[in-house]
Design a protein that fits this description.
5 helices, 196 residues, alpha+beta, single chain
Length: 196
């Protein structure tokens, strides 16, 4: 495991903060100072930040947050918009969101103080249930995409200006149900097991 990942998984430091500690010469492995950010560690290695031994974290916390519309799932926003961390008590500032809900979405969001747990849950096949309101009616083409999945060659429309994501593959929905269609909108309930 990379040293920055080990530090972020077992302390309150982020990977970026761990990188800065390493660059500043404040991290040692088995008594030797480390400066190479790509250094890997073994289970038997003793890692210290300053004089403090980094112990393997064996306990973690997970919290449930009901995210309202109009909050971003990010630590800071360069445009000054409200984030979930503005609403959460200060003690949760180091917690990591397990997945994301966009600015206009609301619903259950899990956060944890263990990056390894966050990554394991994000990479898992856990079912996620969403209620959607989309503009327009559901066509046969959309039903086929929900049943079979689809590949979007150009996924940049509506994306953040700095995104590097150009195309995306969407897996089939596990289940879906059209709840209603009226006023030019369709309401759906969908179940998926990937977060893209």
């Amino acid at each position: 495991m990379r040293i920055n990942k080990f530090i972020s998984h077992n302390t309150n430091y982020s990977r970026r903060e761990a990188d800065e500690l390493i660059k500043a010469g404040k991290v040692s492995i088995n008594g030797r100072s480390v400066s190479d950010l790509s250094t890997d560690i073994k289970d038997s290695d003793k890692v210290k930040i300053g004089s403090r031994l980094v112990k393997l974290k064996k306990e973690f916390s997970v919290i449930v947050y009901n995210k309202p519309k109009g909050e971003l799932v990010t630590k800071r926003d360069d445009r000054g918009r409200r984030t979930i961390y503005d609403s959460l008590p200060r003690g949760f500032s180091k917690f990591i969101s397990i997945g994301r809900l966009d600015f206009a979405s609301e619903g259950l969001l899990l956060l944890t103080d263990a990056p390894a747990i966050a990554q394991a849950l994000m990479d898992s096949d856990i079912e996620r249930e969403y209620y959607l309101k989309i503009k327009g009616n559901i066509t046969e083409q959309v039903i086929n995409a929900m049943r079979e999945g689809f590949f979007a060659k150009d996924a940049t429309k509506g994306a953040h200006a700095k995104t590097k994501q150009i195309s995306m593959e969407f897996k089939p929905f596990l289940a879906y149900r059209i709840i209603s269609q009226s006023g030019g909108y369709t309401r759906l309930k969908v179940i998926i097991n990937e977060g893209q």
